[in-house]
Protein backbone atom coordinates (compact mmCIF):
# COMPACT_ATOMS: atom_id res chain seq x y z
CA UNK A 1 0.00 0.00 0.00
CA UNK A 2 2.80 2.43 0.81
CA UNK A 3 4.44 1.67 -2.55
CA UNK A 4 1.17 2.33 -4.39
CA UNK A 5 0.56 5.65 -2.59
CA UNK A 6 4.05 6.88 -3.43
CA UNK A 7 3.50 6.08 -7.11
CA UNK A 8 0.26 8.00 -7.55
CA UNK A 9 1.85 11.11 -6.04
CA UNK A 10 4.48 11.41 -8.79
CA UNK A 11 4.43 14.89 -10.31
CA UNK A 12 4.29 15.47 -14.05
CA UNK A 13 7.78 15.38 -15.49
CA UNK A 14 9.44 18.12 -17.50
CA UNK A 15 12.48 17.64 -19.70
CA UNK A 16 14.27 19.24 -22.65
CA UNK A 17 15.79 18.06 -25.93
CA UNK A 18 16.72 19.40 -29.37
CA UNK A 19 14.67 18.69 -32.49
CA UNK A 20 15.12 15.19 -33.94
CA UNK A 21 17.53 14.13 -31.16
CA UNK A 22 16.59 11.06 -29.08
CA UNK A 23 14.49 11.68 -25.97
CA UNK A 24 13.38 9.18 -23.35
CA UNK A 25 11.48 8.94 -20.08
CA UNK A 26 11.03 6.06 -17.68
CA UNK A 27 8.00 4.70 -15.84
CA UNK A 28 7.89 2.39 -12.84
CA UNK A 29 5.20 -0.27 -12.72
CA UNK A 30 3.31 -0.47 -9.42
CA UNK A 31 1.96 -3.94 -10.15
CA UNK A 32 3.86 -7.20 -10.69
CA UNK A 33 3.32 -9.31 -13.81
CA UNK A 34 4.28 -12.88 -14.57
CA UNK A 35 5.62 -11.62 -17.89
CA UNK A 36 5.75 -7.81 -18.11
CA UNK A 37 6.99 -8.06 -21.72
CA UNK A 38 3.71 -9.70 -22.74
CA UNK A 39 1.10 -9.00 -20.07
CA UNK A 40 0.73 -5.22 -20.31
CA UNK A 41 0.92 -2.63 -23.08
CA UNK A 42 1.40 1.11 -22.71
CA UNK A 43 0.41 3.55 -25.44
CA UNK A 44 1.69 7.13 -25.54
CA UNK A 45 0.13 10.19 -27.15
CA UNK A 46 2.45 13.10 -27.94
CA UNK A 47 0.89 16.51 -28.56
CA UNK A 48 2.79 19.16 -30.51
CA UNK A 49 2.76 22.87 -29.61
CA UNK A 50 0.42 23.39 -32.57
CA UNK A 51 -1.99 20.68 -31.43
CA UNK A 52 -1.14 17.76 -33.73
CA UNK A 53 -0.96 14.32 -32.16
CA UNK A 54 1.44 11.45 -32.76
CA UNK A 55 1.43 8.09 -31.05
CA UNK A 56 3.94 5.58 -29.77
CA UNK A 57 4.38 2.80 -27.26
CA UNK A 58 6.37 2.25 -24.08
CA UNK A 59 8.37 -0.95 -23.62
CA UNK A 60 9.46 -3.13 -20.76
CA UNK A 61 13.17 -2.73 -19.96
CA UNK A 62 13.65 -5.10 -17.03
CA UNK A 63 12.32 -5.33 -13.48
CA UNK A 64 9.53 -2.82 -12.95
CA UNK A 65 10.96 -0.33 -15.47
CA UNK A 66 9.17 0.72 -18.65
CA UNK A 67 10.61 3.34 -20.99
CA UNK A 68 9.28 5.54 -23.74
CA UNK A 69 11.33 6.97 -26.59
CA UNK A 70 10.60 9.72 -29.08
CA UNK A 71 12.08 12.39 -31.31
CA UNK A 72 10.36 15.69 -31.93
CA UNK A 73 10.26 17.43 -35.33
CA UNK A 74 9.24 20.89 -34.13
CA UNK A 75 10.49 23.25 -31.42
CA UNK A 76 8.20 24.29 -28.60
CA UNK A 77 6.62 22.66 -25.58
CA UNK A 78 5.30 19.15 -26.26
CA UNK A 79 3.16 17.11 -23.87
CA UNK A 80 2.81 13.36 -23.50
CA UNK A 81 0.26 11.11 -21.82
CA UNK A 82 0.20 7.33 -21.37
CA UNK A 83 -2.64 4.84 -21.49
CA UNK A 84 -1.97 1.36 -20.09
CA UNK A 85 -3.93 -1.79 -20.84
CA UNK A 86 -3.98 -2.26 -17.05
CA UNK A 87 -5.76 0.88 -15.86
CA UNK A 88 -5.12 -0.09 -12.24
CA UNK A 89 -1.36 0.32 -12.68
CA UNK A 90 -0.84 3.87 -11.46
CA UNK A 91 2.81 3.80 -12.46
CA UNK A 92 2.00 3.19 -16.12
CA UNK A 93 -1.53 4.52 -16.69
CA UNK A 94 -2.25 8.20 -17.29
CA UNK A 95 1.28 9.34 -16.65
CA UNK A 96 1.99 12.74 -18.19
CA UNK A 97 4.87 15.06 -18.86
CA UNK A 98 6.15 17.98 -20.89
CA UNK A 99 9.17 18.28 -23.15
CA UNK A 100 10.70 21.61 -24.14
CA UNK A 101 12.12 21.19 -27.63
CA UNK A 102 14.66 23.65 -29.01
CA UNK A 103 16.08 23.82 -32.57
CA UNK A 104 19.05 21.54 -33.18
CA UNK A 105 22.24 23.60 -33.17
CA UNK A 106 24.84 21.01 -34.20
CA UNK A 107 26.21 19.61 -37.46
CA UNK A 108 24.85 16.04 -37.39
CA UNK A 109 23.08 15.67 -40.77
CA UNK A 110 20.32 13.51 -39.29
CA UNK A 111 19.29 15.88 -36.52
CA UNK A 112 19.89 18.95 -38.69
CA UNK A 113 17.73 17.72 -41.59
CA UNK A 114 15.20 15.39 -39.95
CA UNK A 115 14.00 11.84 -40.43
CA UNK A 116 13.73 10.78 -44.10
CA UNK A 117 10.44 10.43 -45.96
CA UNK A 118 9.27 9.61 -49.48
CA UNK A 119 9.50 12.49 -51.95
CA UNK A 120 6.36 14.14 -53.32
CA UNK A 121 6.79 12.36 -56.66
CA UNK A 122 7.44 9.00 -54.92
CA UNK A 123 10.74 8.54 -56.75
CA UNK A 124 13.33 8.97 -53.98
CA UNK A 125 13.82 9.65 -50.28
CA UNK A 126 14.28 13.08 -48.75
CA UNK A 127 15.15 14.31 -45.30
CA UNK A 128 12.28 15.92 -43.40
CA UNK A 129 13.42 19.35 -44.57
CA UNK A 130 13.13 18.29 -48.22
CA UNK A 131 16.84 17.74 -48.91
CA UNK A 132 17.25 14.62 -51.10
CA UNK A 133 18.62 11.61 -49.21
CA UNK A 134 21.05 9.49 -51.25
CA UNK A 135 21.14 6.05 -49.63
CA UNK A 136 24.64 4.57 -49.34
CA UNK A 137 24.36 1.44 -47.24
CA UNK A 138 26.72 -1.23 -45.99
CA UNK A 139 25.83 -4.77 -44.95
CA UNK A 140 26.90 -5.62 -41.42
CA UNK A 141 24.30 -8.34 -41.08
CA UNK A 142 25.66 -10.08 -37.98
CA UNK A 143 27.07 -7.04 -36.16
CA UNK A 144 24.27 -6.73 -33.61
CA UNK A 145 25.05 -10.13 -32.13
CA UNK A 146 28.71 -10.53 -33.17
CA UNK A 147 30.38 -7.11 -32.77
CA UNK A 148 31.78 -5.85 -29.49
CA UNK A 149 30.91 -2.25 -28.57
CA UNK A 150 34.43 -1.04 -29.41
CA UNK A 151 34.46 -2.89 -32.74
CA UNK A 152 31.11 -1.38 -33.64
CA UNK A 153 32.24 2.14 -32.85
CA UNK A 154 35.45 1.75 -34.87
CA UNK A 155 33.42 0.38 -37.76
CA UNK A 156 30.93 3.25 -37.65
CA UNK A 157 33.76 5.79 -37.49
CA UNK A 158 35.32 4.26 -40.62
CA UNK A 159 32.10 4.11 -42.60
CA UNK A 160 31.34 7.71 -41.62
CA UNK A 161 34.64 8.81 -43.21
CA UNK A 162 33.63 6.92 -46.35
CA UNK A 163 30.27 8.77 -46.53
CA UNK A 164 28.08 5.77 -45.79
CA UNK A 165 24.80 6.83 -44.22
CA UNK A 166 22.96 3.53 -43.65
CA UNK A 167 24.09 0.34 -41.92
CA UNK A 168 22.01 -2.74 -42.73
CA UNK A 169 21.73 -5.30 -39.94
CA UNK A 170 19.93 -8.58 -39.40
CA UNK A 171 17.79 -8.34 -36.27
CA UNK A 172 18.65 -11.95 -35.43
CA UNK A 173 21.85 -13.92 -35.99
CA UNK A 174 22.76 -12.55 -39.40
CA UNK A 175 23.60 -16.01 -40.79
CA UNK A 176 26.35 -16.72 -38.25
CA UNK A 177 26.42 -19.41 -35.59
CA UNK A 178 26.05 -17.27 -32.47
CA UNK A 179 23.34 -17.52 -29.84
CA UNK A 180 24.65 -14.75 -27.56
CA UNK A 181 26.28 -11.36 -27.99
CA UNK A 182 29.86 -10.60 -26.99
CA UNK A 183 28.74 -9.85 -23.43
CA UNK A 184 27.10 -13.26 -23.14
CA UNK A 185 23.51 -12.05 -23.45
CA UNK A 186 20.93 -14.01 -25.45
CA UNK A 187 18.19 -12.07 -27.30
CA UNK A 188 15.34 -13.94 -25.58
CA UNK A 189 14.60 -15.71 -22.32
CA UNK A 190 12.00 -18.32 -21.44
CA UNK A 191 9.53 -20.03 -23.73
CA UNK A 192 5.80 -20.29 -24.25
CA UNK A 193 3.89 -17.91 -21.94
CA UNK A 194 7.15 -16.91 -20.24
CA UNK A 195 8.93 -15.90 -23.47
CA UNK A 196 10.32 -12.38 -23.19
CA UNK A 197 13.08 -10.37 -24.71
CA UNK A 198 16.28 -10.01 -22.73
CA UNK A 199 16.54 -6.31 -21.77
CA UNK A 200 20.33 -6.51 -21.39
CA UNK A 201 20.72 -7.74 -24.97
CA UNK A 202 18.40 -5.16 -26.52
CA UNK A 203 19.90 -2.33 -24.47
CA UNK A 204 23.22 -3.12 -26.16
CA UNK A 205 21.50 -3.11 -29.56
CA UNK A 206 20.06 0.28 -28.69
CA UNK A 207 23.49 1.61 -27.71
CA UNK A 208 24.82 0.56 -31.11
CA UNK A 209 21.99 2.36 -32.86
CA UNK A 210 22.47 5.47 -30.73
CA UNK A 211 26.18 5.59 -31.58
CA UNK A 212 25.54 5.15 -35.30
CA UNK A 213 22.95 7.94 -35.23
CA UNK A 214 25.31 10.19 -33.28
CA UNK A 215 27.77 9.87 -36.17
CA UNK A 216 25.15 10.59 -38.84
CA UNK A 217 24.36 7.00 -39.91
CA UNK A 218 20.95 5.37 -39.92
CA UNK A 219 20.39 1.71 -39.08
CA UNK A 220 18.21 -0.52 -41.25
CA UNK A 221 16.74 -3.43 -39.25
CA UNK A 222 15.87 -6.45 -41.39
CA UNK A 223 14.40 -9.85 -40.41
CA UNK A 224 12.22 -8.40 -37.66
CA UNK A 225 10.00 -11.47 -37.99
CA UNK A 226 13.05 -13.63 -37.12
CA UNK A 227 14.82 -11.74 -34.31
CA UNK A 228 17.13 -14.39 -32.95
CA UNK A 229 17.70 -17.72 -31.22
CA UNK A 230 14.88 -18.91 -29.01
CA UNK A 231 12.21 -16.93 -30.86
CA UNK A 232 9.18 -18.82 -32.26
CA UNK A 233 9.14 -17.21 -35.70
CA UNK A 234 6.03 -19.14 -36.75
CA UNK A 235 3.98 -17.66 -33.89
CA UNK A 236 2.20 -14.64 -35.35
CA UNK A 237 1.27 -13.26 -31.93
CA UNK A 238 4.89 -13.27 -30.80
CA UNK A 239 6.05 -11.82 -34.12
CA UNK A 240 3.66 -8.90 -33.73
CA UNK A 241 4.61 -8.41 -30.08
CA UNK A 242 8.31 -8.22 -30.88
CA UNK A 243 7.75 -5.84 -33.81
CA UNK A 244 5.69 -3.57 -31.55
CA UNK A 245 8.31 -3.58 -28.80
CA UNK A 246 11.22 -2.99 -31.17
CA UNK A 247 9.33 -0.06 -32.71
CA UNK A 248 8.80 1.33 -29.20
CA UNK A 249 12.47 0.98 -28.25
CA UNK A 250 13.64 2.58 -31.51
CA UNK A 251 11.00 5.31 -31.67
CA UNK A 252 13.56 8.01 -30.87
CA UNK A 253 16.13 6.88 -33.43
CA UNK A 254 16.84 7.13 -37.14
CA UNK A 255 16.09 3.55 -38.12
CA UNK A 256 14.32 1.88 -41.04
CA UNK A 257 12.45 -1.40 -40.73
CA UNK A 258 12.04 -4.53 -42.83
CA UNK A 259 10.10 -7.52 -41.51
CA UNK A 260 12.12 -9.85 -43.73
CA UNK A 261 15.68 -10.60 -44.79
CA UNK A 262 16.30 -12.80 -47.81
CA UNK A 263 12.71 -13.96 -47.71
CA UNK A 264 9.33 -14.17 -49.38
CA UNK A 265 5.94 -13.02 -48.11
CA UNK A 266 4.49 -15.24 -45.37
CA UNK A 267 1.66 -14.62 -42.91
CA UNK A 268 4.20 -13.95 -40.14
CA UNK A 269 6.27 -11.55 -42.25
CA UNK A 270 3.17 -9.68 -43.37
CA UNK A 271 1.99 -9.49 -39.75
CA UNK A 272 5.33 -8.00 -38.72
CA UNK A 273 5.21 -5.50 -41.58
CA UNK A 274 1.69 -4.40 -40.71
CA UNK A 275 2.58 -4.08 -37.02
CA UNK A 276 5.65 -1.98 -37.82
CA UNK A 277 3.62 0.36 -40.02
CA UNK A 278 1.02 0.76 -37.26
CA UNK A 279 3.41 1.03 -34.31
CA UNK A 280 6.01 3.24 -36.00
CA UNK A 281 3.95 5.58 -38.21
CA UNK A 282 6.79 8.11 -38.38
CA UNK A 283 9.37 5.58 -39.60
CA UNK A 284 9.98 4.05 -43.01
CA UNK A 285 9.20 0.39 -43.65
CA UNK A 286 10.55 -1.59 -46.59
CA UNK A 287 11.52 -5.21 -47.31
CA UNK A 288 14.73 -7.06 -48.05
CA UNK A 289 13.49 -9.77 -50.44
CA UNK A 290 15.00 -13.08 -51.43
CA UNK A 291 17.34 -12.95 -54.41
CA UNK A 292 14.52 -13.48 -56.88
CA UNK A 293 12.47 -10.89 -58.72
CA UNK A 294 9.02 -12.23 -57.79
CA UNK A 295 9.43 -11.53 -54.04
CA UNK A 296 10.67 -8.01 -54.80
CA UNK A 297 7.54 -7.38 -56.86
CA UNK A 298 5.31 -8.86 -54.16
CA UNK A 299 6.81 -6.75 -51.37
CA UNK A 300 6.64 -3.66 -53.59
CA UNK A 301 2.86 -4.06 -53.63
CA UNK A 302 2.45 -4.48 -49.88
CA UNK A 303 0.63 -1.60 -48.21
CA UNK A 304 3.14 -1.57 -45.36
CA UNK A 305 6.19 -0.86 -47.58
CA UNK A 306 7.03 2.80 -48.14
CA UNK A 307 9.75 2.08 -50.68
CA UNK A 308 10.78 -0.92 -52.76
CA UNK A 309 13.79 -2.91 -51.62
CA UNK A 310 15.68 -5.08 -54.07
CA UNK A 311 18.40 -7.72 -53.79
CA UNK A 312 19.85 -8.11 -57.27
CA UNK A 313 22.49 -10.33 -55.69
CA UNK A 314 25.69 -12.12 -56.58
CA UNK A 315 24.30 -13.90 -59.62
CA UNK A 316 22.36 -16.73 -58.03
CA UNK A 317 21.02 -19.21 -60.57
CA UNK A 318 19.27 -21.39 -58.00
CA UNK A 319 17.27 -20.64 -54.87
CA UNK A 320 19.53 -21.32 -51.87
CA UNK A 321 16.50 -21.75 -49.61
CA UNK A 322 14.95 -24.53 -51.69
CA UNK A 323 16.24 -28.05 -52.21
CA UNK A 324 17.57 -27.26 -55.67
CA UNK A 325 20.91 -28.51 -56.99
CA UNK A 326 23.65 -26.04 -56.12
CA UNK A 327 24.99 -24.16 -59.09
CA UNK A 328 27.87 -21.75 -59.51
CA UNK A 329 27.28 -18.02 -59.24
CA UNK A 330 27.06 -16.25 -62.60
CA UNK A 331 28.66 -12.84 -63.05
CA UNK A 332 26.63 -12.11 -66.24
CA UNK A 333 23.42 -12.92 -64.37
CA UNK A 334 24.46 -10.58 -61.53
CA UNK A 335 24.92 -7.71 -63.99
CA UNK A 336 21.66 -8.38 -65.80
CA UNK A 337 19.71 -8.49 -62.53
CA UNK A 338 21.25 -5.23 -61.30
CA UNK A 339 20.00 -3.51 -64.46
CA UNK A 340 16.80 -5.31 -65.43
CA UNK A 341 15.27 -5.94 -62.00
CA UNK A 342 15.98 -2.40 -60.87
CA UNK A 343 14.43 -0.97 -64.02
CA UNK A 344 11.36 -3.20 -63.75
CA UNK A 345 10.70 -2.13 -60.14
CA UNK A 346 11.27 1.50 -61.13
CA UNK A 347 8.48 1.16 -63.71
CA UNK A 348 6.12 -0.86 -61.50
CA UNK A 349 2.88 0.71 -60.28
CA UNK A 350 2.10 2.08 -57.80
CA UNK A 351 5.21 4.21 -57.93
CA UNK A 352 7.63 3.78 -55.03
CA UNK A 353 11.29 4.71 -54.59
CA UNK A 354 13.61 1.80 -55.40
CA UNK A 355 16.77 0.97 -53.43
CA UNK A 356 19.03 -1.87 -54.59
CA UNK A 357 20.12 -2.88 -51.12
CA UNK A 358 22.26 -5.92 -51.89
CA UNK A 359 24.17 -6.45 -55.12
CA UNK A 360 27.46 -8.17 -55.89
CA UNK A 361 29.67 -8.56 -52.82
CA UNK A 362 33.28 -7.52 -52.61
CA UNK A 363 34.14 -11.14 -51.94
CA UNK A 364 37.38 -13.11 -51.87
CA UNK A 365 35.61 -16.29 -52.91
CA UNK A 366 33.81 -14.72 -55.87
CA UNK A 367 36.96 -13.02 -57.08
CA UNK A 368 39.13 -16.13 -56.66
CA UNK A 369 36.69 -18.60 -58.22
CA UNK A 370 38.18 -21.17 -55.90
CA UNK A 371 35.68 -24.02 -56.19
CA UNK A 372 32.73 -25.19 -58.25
CA UNK A 373 30.27 -23.05 -56.28
CA UNK A 374 32.33 -19.91 -56.92
CA UNK A 375 33.24 -20.85 -60.47
CA UNK A 376 34.22 -18.14 -62.98
CA UNK A 377 36.23 -15.53 -61.06
CA UNK A 378 34.33 -12.26 -60.95
CA UNK A 379 35.87 -8.99 -62.13
CA UNK A 380 37.03 -7.10 -59.04
CA UNK A 381 35.15 -4.07 -60.38
CA UNK A 382 31.76 -5.80 -60.17
CA UNK A 383 30.59 -4.33 -56.81
CA UNK A 384 31.53 -0.89 -58.14
CA UNK A 385 29.88 -1.56 -61.49
CA UNK A 386 26.68 -2.67 -59.80
CA UNK A 387 26.48 0.63 -57.93
CA UNK A 388 26.57 2.70 -61.13
CA UNK A 389 24.45 0.32 -63.23
CA UNK A 390 21.70 0.15 -60.60
CA UNK A 391 21.73 3.90 -59.99
CA UNK A 392 21.35 4.63 -63.70
CA UNK A 393 18.58 2.02 -63.97
CA UNK A 394 16.28 3.70 -61.44
CA UNK A 395 17.67 2.88 -58.00
CA UNK A 396 17.85 5.98 -55.81
CA UNK A 397 20.61 4.62 -53.64
CA UNK A 398 22.65 1.44 -53.32
CA UNK A 399 24.19 -0.83 -50.71
CA UNK A 400 27.74 -2.18 -50.71
CA UNK A 401 28.80 -5.41 -49.05
CA UNK A 402 32.12 -7.07 -48.26
CA UNK A 403 32.75 -10.69 -47.36
CA UNK A 404 34.22 -10.63 -43.87
CA UNK A 405 32.19 -7.55 -42.85
CA UNK A 406 28.67 -8.86 -43.35
CA UNK A 407 29.52 -11.94 -41.23
CA UNK A 408 31.87 -10.01 -38.91
CA UNK A 409 34.91 -12.13 -39.73
CA UNK A 410 33.08 -15.32 -38.84
CA UNK A 411 34.61 -18.52 -40.19
CA UNK A 412 32.30 -20.93 -38.44
CA UNK A 413 31.36 -22.86 -41.54
CA UNK A 414 32.63 -23.39 -45.06
CA UNK A 415 30.01 -21.14 -46.65
CA UNK A 416 31.24 -18.05 -44.84
CA UNK A 417 35.01 -18.40 -45.06
CA UNK A 418 36.52 -15.23 -46.47
CA UNK A 419 38.64 -12.27 -45.51
CA UNK A 420 39.26 -11.53 -41.83
CA UNK A 421 37.32 -8.53 -40.56
CA UNK A 422 40.25 -6.08 -40.65
CA UNK A 423 41.17 -7.10 -44.21
CA UNK A 424 37.57 -6.80 -45.36
CA UNK A 425 37.18 -3.35 -43.80
CA UNK A 426 40.28 -2.16 -45.65
CA UNK A 427 39.00 -3.17 -49.09
CA UNK A 428 39.30 -0.34 -51.65
CA UNK A 429 35.75 -1.08 -52.75
CA UNK A 430 34.35 0.84 -49.78
CA UNK A 431 36.44 3.89 -50.68
CA UNK A 432 35.14 3.62 -54.24
CA UNK A 433 31.63 3.78 -52.81
CA UNK A 434 32.60 7.13 -51.30
CA UNK A 435 33.62 8.23 -54.79
CA UNK A 436 30.24 7.03 -56.07
CA UNK A 437 28.45 9.02 -53.37
CA UNK A 438 30.47 12.18 -53.97
CA UNK A 439 29.98 11.93 -57.73
CA UNK A 440 26.20 11.74 -57.59
CA UNK A 441 25.93 14.20 -54.69
CA UNK A 442 27.33 16.85 -57.01
CA UNK A 443 24.26 16.79 -59.26
CA UNK A 444 20.46 16.51 -59.25
CA UNK A 445 20.63 12.70 -59.09
CA UNK A 446 17.01 12.45 -57.96
CA UNK A 447 15.84 13.71 -61.37
CA UNK A 448 17.74 11.12 -63.42
CA UNK A 449 15.49 8.85 -65.51
CA UNK A 450 16.82 5.62 -67.08
CA UNK A 451 17.23 6.03 -70.84
CA UNK A 452 19.15 2.94 -71.93
CA UNK A 453 17.36 2.99 -75.29
CA UNK A 454 19.42 6.05 -76.27
CA UNK A 455 22.58 3.89 -76.35
CA UNK A 456 23.26 2.97 -79.99
CA UNK A 457 26.17 0.57 -79.48
CA UNK A 458 25.03 -1.50 -76.51
CA UNK A 459 27.24 -4.53 -75.85
CA UNK A 460 25.87 -8.03 -76.39
CA UNK A 461 28.14 -9.23 -73.56
CA UNK A 462 26.19 -8.92 -70.28
CA UNK A 463 29.39 -8.12 -68.38
CA UNK A 464 29.86 -5.04 -70.55
CA UNK A 465 26.30 -3.72 -70.64
CA UNK A 466 26.28 0.06 -70.40
CA UNK A 467 23.70 2.26 -68.69
CA UNK A 468 22.50 5.80 -69.35
CA UNK A 469 20.13 8.15 -67.54
CA UNK A 470 19.18 11.78 -68.10
CA UNK A 471 16.93 14.40 -66.59
CA UNK A 472 13.59 15.26 -68.26
CA UNK A 473 14.70 18.86 -68.85
CA UNK A 474 17.56 17.62 -71.05
CA UNK A 475 20.26 19.41 -69.08
CA UNK A 476 22.00 16.47 -67.36
CA UNK A 477 22.98 12.96 -68.44
CA UNK A 478 25.19 10.23 -66.96
CA UNK A 479 26.51 7.08 -68.65
CA UNK A 480 28.50 4.16 -67.25
CA UNK A 481 30.90 2.05 -69.34
CA UNK A 482 32.15 -1.18 -67.65
CA UNK A 483 35.00 -2.06 -70.02
CA UNK A 484 33.76 -0.59 -73.31
CA UNK A 485 36.03 1.77 -75.19
CA UNK A 486 33.22 4.07 -76.34
CA UNK A 487 29.51 4.82 -76.03
CA UNK A 488 27.34 6.18 -78.84
CA UNK A 489 24.38 8.23 -77.64
CA UNK A 490 21.41 9.94 -79.22
CA UNK A 491 21.72 13.56 -78.06
CA UNK A 492 18.59 15.00 -79.68
CA UNK A 493 16.65 15.18 -76.40
CA UNK A 494 19.23 17.42 -74.77
CA UNK A 495 18.28 21.07 -74.31
CA UNK A 496 21.36 22.42 -76.08
CA UNK A 497 24.99 21.70 -76.98
CA UNK A 498 26.48 19.22 -74.52
CA UNK A 499 29.59 19.56 -72.38
CA UNK A 500 31.22 16.16 -71.75
CA UNK A 501 33.57 15.11 -68.95
CA UNK A 502 34.95 11.68 -68.07
CA UNK A 503 35.14 10.49 -64.47
CA UNK A 504 37.35 7.62 -63.26
CA UNK A 505 35.45 5.69 -60.54
CA UNK A 506 38.63 3.91 -59.42
CA UNK A 507 40.94 6.90 -58.93
CA UNK A 508 38.34 9.64 -58.36
CA UNK A 509 39.98 11.63 -61.19
CA UNK A 510 38.40 13.71 -63.96
CA UNK A 511 39.42 13.99 -67.61
CA UNK A 512 38.07 17.07 -69.36
CA UNK A 513 40.21 16.96 -72.50
CA UNK A 514 39.08 13.70 -74.11
CA UNK A 515 36.06 15.30 -75.80
CA UNK A 516 35.38 18.58 -77.64
CA UNK A 517 34.40 21.50 -75.43
CA UNK A 518 30.84 21.26 -76.77
CA UNK A 519 29.03 18.54 -78.70
CA UNK A 520 26.02 19.48 -80.84
CA UNK A 521 22.69 18.02 -79.78
CA UNK A 522 21.62 17.22 -83.35
CA UNK A 523 21.94 13.44 -83.56
CA UNK A 524 24.15 10.60 -82.35
CA UNK A 525 27.70 11.00 -81.13
CA UNK A 526 30.39 8.48 -80.11
CA UNK A 527 32.20 9.40 -76.90
CA UNK A 528 35.54 7.61 -76.50
CA UNK A 529 36.76 6.62 -73.06
CA UNK A 530 40.24 7.87 -72.03
CA UNK A 531 42.88 5.25 -72.74
CA UNK A 532 44.14 3.10 -69.88
CA UNK A 533 40.92 3.26 -67.87
CA UNK A 534 39.08 0.07 -66.89
CA UNK A 535 35.57 1.40 -66.35
CA UNK A 536 34.43 5.00 -66.71
CA UNK A 537 31.55 7.40 -66.09
CA UNK A 538 30.53 10.02 -68.64
CA UNK A 539 28.94 13.24 -67.38
CA UNK A 540 26.96 15.31 -69.89
CA UNK A 541 25.66 18.77 -69.01
CA UNK A 542 23.98 21.65 -70.81
CA UNK A 543 24.81 25.13 -69.56
CATH fold naming of the largest domain: TIM Barrel
Question: What is the end-to-end distance?
Answer: 78 Å
| Extended strand count | 29
Question: How many separate structural domains?
Answer: 3
Total of DSSP H or I helical runs spanning 4+ residues: 14
Major beta sheet summary: 7 strands, mixed
Average pLDDT number = 94
Question: CATH homologous superfamily of the largest domain?
Answer: Glycosidases
- Which CATH top level class of the largest domain fits? Alpha Beta
Contiguous low-pLDDT stretches (5 residues minimum) are 1-11, 412-416
**Strand portion:** 15-25%
Morphology:
globular
What is the annotated CATH architecture of the largest domain? Answer: Alpha-Beta Barrel
Tell me what you see in this structure.
The protein is α/β, with parallel strands linked by helices. It folds into three domains: 2-105, Immunoglobulin-like, CATH 2.60.40.10; 110-443, Glycosidases (TIM Barrel), CATH 3.20.20.80; 451-541, Immunoglobulin-like (Sandwich), CATH 2.60.40. It is 25% helix and 24% strand. The protein is built from 14 helices and 29 strands. The strands form eight sheets. A seven-stranded mixed sheet has the order 1-7-6-3-4-5-2, with helices on one face. A six-stranded antiparallel sheet has the order 22-23-24-29-26-27, covered by helices on one side. A five-stranded parallel sheet has the order 16-15-12-11-21. Helix 5 runs parallel beside helix 6 (199-214), helix 7 (236-249) packs parallel to helix 8 (267-279) and helix 12 (382-391) runs parallel beside helix 14. It starts with a helix and ends with a strand. Residues 1-11 and 412-416 have low confidence and may be disordered.
Amino acid sequence: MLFFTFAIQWPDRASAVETWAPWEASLTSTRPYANPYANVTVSVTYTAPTGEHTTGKAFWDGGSTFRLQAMFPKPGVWTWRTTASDAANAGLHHRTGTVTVTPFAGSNPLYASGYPKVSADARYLTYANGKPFLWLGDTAWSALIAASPSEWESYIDLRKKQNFNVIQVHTGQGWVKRSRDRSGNAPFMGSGPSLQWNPAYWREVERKVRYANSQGLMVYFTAIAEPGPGFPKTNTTEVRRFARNLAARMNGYFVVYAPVADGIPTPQIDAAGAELAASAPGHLVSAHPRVKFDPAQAFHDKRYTDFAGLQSGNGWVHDPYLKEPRKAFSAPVAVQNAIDWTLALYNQAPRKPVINMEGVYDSMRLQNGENLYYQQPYPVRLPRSMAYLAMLSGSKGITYGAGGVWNWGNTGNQATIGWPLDTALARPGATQMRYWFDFFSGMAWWNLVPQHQLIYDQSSNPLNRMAFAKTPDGRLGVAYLPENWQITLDLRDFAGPVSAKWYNPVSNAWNTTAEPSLVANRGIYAFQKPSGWEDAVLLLTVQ
